[in-house]
Amino acid sequence: MPLWYNEEQTEGVSFGIKIKEQILSEESQFQTIDIYDTYEFGKLFTLDGLVMLTEKDEFIYHDMIVHVPMAVNTEIKNVLVIGGGDGGTVRELTRYNSIEKIDMVEIDEMVVRASQKHLPFTASKLTDPRVNLFFEDGIVFVKNAQNSMYDLIIVDSTDPIGPGEGLFTKEFYDQCFRILTSEGILINQHESPFYPQFSKEMKRAHNKIKNIFPISMVYQAHIPTYPSGHWLFGFSSKKFHPLEDLKSPRWEMLKLKTKYYNSDLHLGSFALPTYVKEMLEEE
Ligand code: SAM
Q1: Which residues make up the binding site for S-methyl-5'-thioadenosine (predicted)?
Q2: Of 133, 142, 79, which Cα lies nearest the Cα of 108?
Q3: Closest CA to 270 of 88, 64, 53
């Protein structure tokens, strides 16, 4: 009998991936960590039975969460990553020589250790000398951080349930605003617009952020293994507009090879379907 990983992405909709074998199953203080080897998607990493990444399509999420802000402000030096224990976001950030410091705050050390052992394709740069790992709650970390410390904050979190819940609150976004410099950018994963269980959260999060940041826009990517395959990210800034301030020639001069992100796609990713635009306009 072939083995299948099945995830109920929303009520009545199941997404399945045929697996070769289960590599790891661990209970941490916060969540259940599973890693599988699959036929089509390579390694598959889940938390509490929800896909966090697969080896085959993780480049899409990590390209879009990192290169979009980095192409808008190519001078970014100090970065805070909240969550992101698989290391994929840090991997992309370390490709920029201009970045001097990356603080990564992951609540669950077991996620980092499991990724370092089984997911080297994302975790390999967590040992870069510019990276400081903090194993604590991101909500507490931002409360205790000094004003204007970071040029960029990336919230690479789980869904707004369990330990990730507080990362979708007004209090958390207020703290992010405070600890960003006057040129600061906040990127956060905004869930899927397609199924109401996710879009409700996305709308709530977006409404809170747009009341705090002068510039706040949403962009999208196609991620095959995430619910509905259609995923959103939030771009908020004290100064930079993600389209008007895009520095395409300067970013292209860096000659970073990316598999998903490019300057045309950057512009296109902010062009949202009508139903998503309408959703975001609702209070
Ligand atoms: N790309 C994934 C997705 O959207 O499905 C998310 C990556 S996953 C590795 C997110 C990480 O956020 C998890 O390892 C989880 O432990 C961490 N996390 C959740 N809540 C957190 C919190 N309050 N503070 C710090 N890290 C948190």
Answers
A1: 31, 106, 137-138, 163
A2: 133
A3: 64
- For residue 150, how far is its CA from the centre of ligand 1 (angstroms)? 20
Active-site residue, from 34, 63, 151, 156? 156
Instruction: Report the first-to-last Cα separation within the chain, whole angstroms.
Output: 49
Give the range among 51-65, 159-173, 203-217, 263-277 with minimum mean pLDDT.
Answer: 159-173
pLDDT of 160 reads 80
- Cα 118 to Cα 33, 112, 156, 217: the distances in Å are 12, 10, 20, 35
Q: How far apart are CA 249 and CA 179, in angstroms?
A: 29
| Interval 225-245: pLDDT, tens | 999 999 999 999 999 999 999
Find out whether the beta carbon of 103 lies less than 6 Å from any atom of ligand 1.
no
Q: Pairing mode, if any, of strands 50-54 and 43-47? A: antiparallel
Nearest-CA residue for ligand 1 atom 2 is 52
50-54, strands of its sheet edge to edge: 3-10, 13-27, 32-38, 43-47, 50-54
For ligand 1, whether the C-beta of 163 sits within 6 Å is yes
Range with lowest mean pLDDT among 39-48, 69-78, 164-173, 211-220: 164-173
* Ligand 1 atom with the shortest distance to the CA of 138: 24
Domains in the chain: ranges and CATH: 3-54 (2.30.140.10), 58-281 (3.40.50.150)
83 CB within 6 A, ligand 1: yes
Helix ranges restricted to H, 213-247: none
pLDDT tens digit string along 74-86?
999 999 999 999 9
